[in-house]
Amino acid sequence: MKPVSVLLVDDHPVVREGYRRLLERQKNFAVVAEAEDAAAAYQAYRDHSPDVVVMDLSLRGGAGGLEAVRHIRQWDKRARILVFTMHSAAAYALKAFEAGASGFITKGGEASELVRAVGLVARGGRALGDDVAREIAAERLADGRSPLADLGPRETEILRLVASGHTTEDIADALHLSPKTVQNYHYQIKSKVGARTDAHLVWLALGAGLVAADAPPL
C-alpha cells in the first residue's frame, strides 16, 4: 500500500526533525518535503503534490501559515492541510478552516493526536483537537461573537502582521501586494472590527490569540 506523503511546514528545523521521526515510525507515512516559510511551503507543494500538508501558523518572514493555507488552496482546491500550532484560539481555528484547512490541532496534545489527525485528513476527513473544540464550544455557549468574525483569511493575516509591528511595505512584500492595496485592507479591517486606532487593532489581535502578549519585538 502506498504510504501517505507528507509536507512538513515549520520554521524550526529541530521541530521538523521530531515530527519527521514521529510520522516515519508509522509504516504508512512518508515525509517527502519540508519548508520553513510560506513561500517555500507553496513551492514544495507544487513540486511534490503531497497527500497532506502539516502546517504551523507562525513561520519565518512576513506571511504566516494562514496565508500559506490560502495560497496553496487557491492553486489546488483538493489540497489537504492540517494546521498544527501552539494557537488554540477559536477565532484562529475558524479562520484556518475558512482559508481551506482540513484540520486544526495544537502542539500541546499527545504525539498520537498528530498521527491520528494526519491519517484522518489523508482519508478526506476533518480533524479538530479537543482543546480547540472546547474553545469553540465555550465561545458559542457564551453567545460570544468574535470581533474578527467578519474578516476573511487574508484580512486576518494582515491584522496579525499589523499587530506584530510590520510596516505597510513589509506586509506588501510578504504578501506580494502593492502598498496601496495593503492600506486599503488596513482601512477595511478597522471599519469591520470598529477600531479607530492601530492600538485598538493590537488589543483585538491579542484578545483573539492572533499574536502573543509576550512575543519578542521585531
TrEMBL record:
The modification 4-aspartylphosphate is found at D56. GO terms for biological process: phosphorelay signal transduction system; regulation of DNA-templated transcription. This is DNA-binding response regulator. The keyword Flavoprotein does not apply. SMART domains: HTH_LUXR, REC. It comes from Methylosinus trichosporium (strain ATCC 35070 / NCIMB 11131 / UNIQEM 75 / OB3b). The lineage of its organism: Bacteria, Pseudomonadati, Pseudomonadota, Alphaproteobacteria, Hyphomicrobiales. It comes from the Bacteria. Residues 5-122 form the Response regulatory domain.
